[in-house]
Specification:
It is a single chain. The protein is mainly beta. It has two domains: 127 residues, Beta Barrel (Elongation Factor Tu (Ef-tu), domain 3); 136 residues, Immunoglobulins (Immunoglobulin-like). It has one helix and 21 strands.
Amino acid sequence: MKVSAAFLLLVVGSTVLGANRLEDGFYASAENESGVPIVGQDGTKYYLGDRKVVEIEPVELYALDNGNTQFRLSLRVPHDVYANGPWPILVVDGIAFKPNGSGSNADQTSWLMFPMSGLPRAEQVAKDLATPLFRREHPGYALRVTFAPSKEEFVVGEDVTVTVRIENVGDDTISFVCGGRNRAARDNQYIFSAYLRNEQVPDIGTTMHFGGLSSVRSFGPGEAFEHTVNLKKWFAFDQPGRYEIFGLFYLEFKKPGTLRGRTIWEDYASADFTVTISD
């Protein structure tokens, strides 16, 4: 099945092609075993019902991880495709795919999102739907990262603040998500591990979070991003001494010039630093 650059028109019936081989396209979900059986990518058996006639705008198929093992297919469809019933099943190359998410606009169009596992399967789906496949590739950014304590020495019991500075020492503008893990007791965009006298210091906090507000930050060559955080949300610092700390700041890179869009790479800005605590 091939599609034009403008839109995709799927006219699907319940025709069996060969041995349990179904024609590519959208099918309604059958509520019982009276439908045509088909197996999904994870081995789940589905039963397909009536045909669907669906107009679809250009699709997007992109990787969800740096290793290019998990993918998401996003299709824009008329809202009534599933407004009065369960999500439809997409069949491509004899494999069934069930949506795991959706969205809609005021103009009565919706998005259906289908998870897909494995690069070979994603390549086959991209070929059958004539849509580009967006793999993740390292963007080649050059960053200089430091974590700088706000004081040379802190006293037991006071806040211990440190500022991460990420400087763009390359030639490309960089965009990344800031926030999104801060609806919590602490900002879990950060990860820290600490040692005192060669013994690991317990983390007194929690990594649990419920998302949070986020924005896309961009900085060009020679520019830097800075953010300050209180390490007392990670460590008690109730003993004097010189703490050796490794800090990481999660970076979800976006294509520069786009407000959101798909993630092009995930990584961490990291550096070692020390904090001195006195009585």
